[in-house]
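DM from R.C. (forwarded with permission)

"hey, sorry to bug you on a friday — could you get me a structure for this? deadline for the figure draft is monday and I only need the backbone to look sensible"
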Amino acid sequence: MPVTHTSVDAEAAARLVAFGMRPKQLPARDVVYGELVRRYAEDNAFKALTHAVASGLGLMVLEVNQQAGAVLAAVDESIFEIKMDNYARQAKIRERRETEKVIHGLIHLAAAALAYPRPDDLANDTYIGRVSVEQVDAMVREAARMLDERAQQAEANNDPLADAPELEQAWRAYARRPAAAATKDGRLAADTTRGMAARALRFLADQGFLVPVSDEQGGTYRTTPRYQIQVRELAADAAFDDLLALDVVAVASAGGTLRAASSDTLQ
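My reply, with the result:
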């Protein structure tokens, strides 16, 4: 006999999805949210209904648990998908050219790789990573240097790289920009690479993926369970594997404090 859902069930499922769209709200801080998460875990019919409600809105349920709450991702062409123009407005990015889009994508990729450089980090639900503005900038800059060397070697062998030209342009554009420069009032200039990295990490914090820890290294953040779930999805992307394969990420201690590869190579 098919399972039937009442309007009350549908409203509860929709409410759980709505909680998931409030990134800084957690089940531990809201009795209703916590109860909905518990019901999701124990009631398969309610779980299926929640997925159906999310799907109808153009969303995919990645995970629902007491630590992260309901973690959602927008599917392609969803009204909730964050387009570059929307990201640019939220992160106060002035330039929206194709190269700029790719550069900001590289910055977010580096932040994820630094936060969870090992497969075990992503698999361990108790793991908390740390990432800073200076680490992200150093990682992308070193990756740019290594990729530029690879491109030059390929050209010398009359075997130019066949990858997307906008990606190569983005690496080179990043390498050409200054890492840091101050404005007249002493703030970090927005068009420097550290300025771009700082905006990206603040954006992730606004989305509930990171939490500010200190002002050290241009701004240091710790990861949240919500971010770990999102990065697990990202880890399936070939670009993530390619970035880690460059070996520009290292773990400084067994406790998981992260650093970019040796400072001698990142000056």
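R.C.: lifesaver. The chain has eleven helices and seven strands.
me: no worries. Residues 251-267 have pLDDT under 50 and may be disordered.
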